[in-house]
């Protein structure tokens, strides 16, 4: 594969102002010189024409970038032609005629990895940046692309290698390197590594960053759930009336809070009812609450407590955000820790937004989270090995025997960055890429 010249369209399919044909490999300059005239100076975007066998094919721009200072660390050329499907395909076919072959999915980035420009986790971050659907997901992907995950993994590997070296020193010089002190240092190091790795490999937090969180509004009919949803969404998404039971089904709206994507759901008011349709809505509301990452429990501040509200309050768990709505009216309820809201005046809405982010642990997520499912799976396997090593160290197992677990952890961590990844793993990573990347 390395040594061949590849080409592909690097821009999305369809019509557009410009399409980019990317070429990478040892023949990139030769192909550009025959497909484009005049050939621009290296690293200069130049104006000219795409040339076919019978003359000019398109008015375009082109650039040539010599290795190794390119994305793939190979010679790279790009032709920026007009973005219609017909002309884009004609230019690409011309490049193929001149000796390039079609690039496979992710082959440009695979070459960057194989040529040592990026680690495997940094290569995966390329697609994470492209597919990010929120600020938080984008920030996490950029940190990974800039080597955040690699740096963290390498720091763990360094600590483990240091501990293994200390164990080896004790085995070679038992009279000079104290066994008890070596064991104490190993235990302390493993406890620190395990705590940090467990936090970074939290699958739920990764999902929230990558895909967004679910937040459900729950409460009795006519407590103002739909009004709160409209206030958070910034639009009249839910129908609001004074008639109890207006919302019959789960209504969802995607909002952005603090850089996170949050799927906000308004649900049917929970109450006993003989209406068959409303009863289905109530069941769906209960199911939505069970599956939510956070629950906004809404109560009407203008009416005294009743038995059904007290029952609902007793069933809430740590995901709940307590809200007293309609505080513009006479307040009849007290609820310690509740956010006081009036959708008419806007009181408390900003405070509610902050409470949602706090419930979703957004500040922690922004700085500490692995988001790639492959990395999380490997981190969990690493944790298993490290926990075995820690347990063994604590019960007094000989130190040299613990090195088996530490070696397992090192190999698994190496799969994250690609240092110990098999060819099959590498192929699976890149087959998910788009062709032009």
Low-confidence residue ranges: 238-248, 270-279
Share in helix: 40-55%
| Terminal-residue CA separation | 16 Å
Query: What order do the SSEs take from the amino end to the carboxyl end, as H and E?
Result: EEHEEEEHEHHHHHHEHEEHEHEEHHHHH
> What is the mean pLDDT?
87
Please, could you describe this protein's structure?
It is a single chain. The protein is α/β, with parallel strands linked by helices and 437 residues long. It has helices at residues 28-35, 85-97, 107-114, 120-131, 135-145, 148-172, 179-200, 203-211, 225-233, 276-291, 307-315, 349-359, 362-368, 373-394, 399-417, 423-430; strands spanning 6-9, 18-24, 36-37, 46-52, 55-65, 76-82, 101-102, 213-219, 251-257, 260-266, 294-300, 320-325, 339-340. Strands 3-4-5-6-2-1-7 form a seven-stranded mixed β-sheet. A six-stranded mixed β-sheet has the order 9-10-8-11-12-13, with helices on both faces. Helix 4 (120-131) packs antiparallel against helix 5 (135-145). It is flat, with a radius of gyration of 29 Å.
What order do the helices and strands come in, and which of them pair?
Blueprint: E1 6-9, E2 18-24, H1 28-35, E3 36-37, E4 46-52, E5 55-65, E6 76-82, H2 85-97, E7 101-102, H3 107-114, H4 120-131, H5 135-145, H6 148-172, H7 179-200, H8 203-211, E8 213-219, H9 225-233, E9 251-257, E10 260-266, H10 276-291, E11 294-300, H11 307-315, E12 320-325, E13 339-340, H12 349-359, H13 362-368, H14 373-394, H15 399-417, H16 423-430
Parallel strand pairs: 1-7, 8-10, 8-11, 11-12, 12-13
Antiparallel strand pairs: 1-2, 2-6, 3-4, 4-5, 5-6, 9-10
Helix pairs in contact: 4-5, 6-7, 6-15, 7-14, 14-15
């Amino acid at each position: 594969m390395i040594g061949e010249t590849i080409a592909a369209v690097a821009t999305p399919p369809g019509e557009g102002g410009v399409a980019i044909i990317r070429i990478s490999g040892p023949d990139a300059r030769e192909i550009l010189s025959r497909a484009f005239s005049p050939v621009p100076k290296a690293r200069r975007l130049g104006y000219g024409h795409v040339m076919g066998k019978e003359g000019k094919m398109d008015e375009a721009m082109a650039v040539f970038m010599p290795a190794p200072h390119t994305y793939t660390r190979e010679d790279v050329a790009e032709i920026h032609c007009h973005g219609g499907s017909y002309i884009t395909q004609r230019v690409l076919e011309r490049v193929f005629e001149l000796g390039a072959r079609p690039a496979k999915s992710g082959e440009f980035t695979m070459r960057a990895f194989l040529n040592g420009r990026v680690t495997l986790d940094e290569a995966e971050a390329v697609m994470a940046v492209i597919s990010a659907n929120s600020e938080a997901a984008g920030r996490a992907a950029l940190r990974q692309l800039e080597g955040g995950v690699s740096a963290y993994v390498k720091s763990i590997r360094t600590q483990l290698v240091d501990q293994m070296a200390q164990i080896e020193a004790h085995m070679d010089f038992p009279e000079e390197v104290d066994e008890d002190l070596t064991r104490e240092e190993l235990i302390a190091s493993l406890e620190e590594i395990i705590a940090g790795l467990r936090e970074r490999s939290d699958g739920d937090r990764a999902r929230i960053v990558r895909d967004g969180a679910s937040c459900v509004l729950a409460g009795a009919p006519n407590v103002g759930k739909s009004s709160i949803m409209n206030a958070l969404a910034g639009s009249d998404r839910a129908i609001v009336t004074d008639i109890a039971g207006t919302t019959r089904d789960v209504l969802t709206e995607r909002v952005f809070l603090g850089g996170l994507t949050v799927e906000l759901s308004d649900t049917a008011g929970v109450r006993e009812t003989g209406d068959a349709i409303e009863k289905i809505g109530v069941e769906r509301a209960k199911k939505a609450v069970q599956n939510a990452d956070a629950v906004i429990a809404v109560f009407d501040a203008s009416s005294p407590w009743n038995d059904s509200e007290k029952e609902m309050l007793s069933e809430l768990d740590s995901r709940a955000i307590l809200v007293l709505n309609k505080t513009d009216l006479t307040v009849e309820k007290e609820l310690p820790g509740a956010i006081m809201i009036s959708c008419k005046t806007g009181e408390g809405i900003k405070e509610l937004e902050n409470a949602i982010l706090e419930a979703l642990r957004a500040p922690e997520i922004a700085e500490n989270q692995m988001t790639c499912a492959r990395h999380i799976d490997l981190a969990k396997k690493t944790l298993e090995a490290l926990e075995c090593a820690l347990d063994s160290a604590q019960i007094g197992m000989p130190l040299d025997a613990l090195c088996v677990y530490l070696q397992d952890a090192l190999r698994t961590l190496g799969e994250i960055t690609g240092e110990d990844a098999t060819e099959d793993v590498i192929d699976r990573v890149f087959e998910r890429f788009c062709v032009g990347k």
